[in-house]
Amino acid sequence: MDRKNFLSTLGLSSASLLAAACLGSCSKETVASAPTVDFTIDISQSQYAALTAPGGYVYSNGIIIATTSTGQIIAVSQTCTHQGATVVFQNTNTDFYCPRHGALFSASGAVTAGPASSNLKQYTVTVNGNLVRVHG
Q1: Cβ proximity of 123 and 136 under 8 Å
Q2: What is the pTM for the complete model shown?
């Protein structure tokens, strides 16, 4: 093989690899696997104090834990199912919002507005005094 053929073959191979990588990264949905968890936090500790007030939320172990306006503590996976951004809690609507592309999820983690098409995993929350157990 002469130099011209070698470079031509190398160029085509590189272009093929680059195209495959580009197409793979442009997929619409990157569903993150939600972790199975079982942990307990103490909301009297300063790092979890936000949960003592309606609208407060914290992140722990890949989960976003929030207190609704009615005082209910809820928990879902913190990772948006669209492209993996971290969601935030919006107390005014009691929903979760992805700031990267605007996806909205209900308090139970169900998609209410795209571009995400998969729900966030919802976790069971048990409250016993200052102790909040998140599992599922």
Answers
A1: yes
A2: 0.74
High-pLDDT (> 70) share of the chain, %: 74
* SS3 per residue for the chain: CCHHHHHHHHHHHHHHHHHHHHHHHCCCCCCCCCCCCEEEEECCCHHHHHHHCCCCEEEECCEEEEECCCCCEEEEECECCCCCCECEEECCCCEEECCCCCCEECCCCCEEECCCCCCCCEEEEEEECCEEEEEC
Q: Which CATH superfamily is domain 38-135 in?
A: Rieske [2Fe-2S] iron-sulphur domain (2.102.10.10)
| Residue 67 near residue 55 (C-beta atoms within 8 A) | yes
Going from N- to C-terminal start, the domains of the chain cover 1-28, 38-135
Half-sphere exposure of residue 40, counting CA atoms within 13 Å on the CB side? Answer: 10
